[in-house]
Write the structure tokens for this entry.
Amino acid sequence: MVKKLVAVGCSYTENNYSFPVWPELLSKEYNYKCINLGYRGSGNEYIFSNALDASIKEKDIGLMVIMWSEFQRMDWQQTNKYWSSIQYNVNRYVRNEEQWKEDIVGLLDKNGYNSKEHQINRTLRYMYSIQQVCTLNGIPLIQLFGPDPCPQNEKYKAGKTILNSPFFHSIECIGWPIIDNMGGWTIDTRLNMGEDRISLRDTHPSEIGHRKIVKIIRECADKKSHYIPK
């Protein structure tokens, strides 16, 4: 029976290009079947939910890799099972194309429902929870972050929130604690703004960038024997 590599993430994971992306490249290295559940624009509730579902539905998982996304995204699963996200604005930059989403964000912000600490702690709970589920079910798990989870001017407070989390010493995540000011890193901080990106306008990983992501994952994962697929 061929084992499976389950990859979950946002647009840094989804294959929306003419070239193979990191889940496909990594699965070939391990000779696994690739199950790519990445979806553009998704937040960490989508990522957690689909990883959790896959841990139950998919059999013979040889490795699950979760590439987490930005803290400020909010996800909903609609009645037709289609997922959609609404994003809080970052540094006054409008993140939503639809006006009704901007109206919702404005209303939430006006009434005090834009806690950065809550957004961070929500993600850390997801990370710890899926880690426990995978451990319980004997599924090898790698966690890392694709995009920087918050803008540079919020990283100091984000770092304090992460340090104060009860899960700080329990989460296993390559690049932990993910904030570069604290010595951590994400895929964004490891890729350069030249050949590793589609373009200066579209800063998603290029084909070269995706190959670099695989190298980064392998280098970090192979240092810990329980990460390495058997």
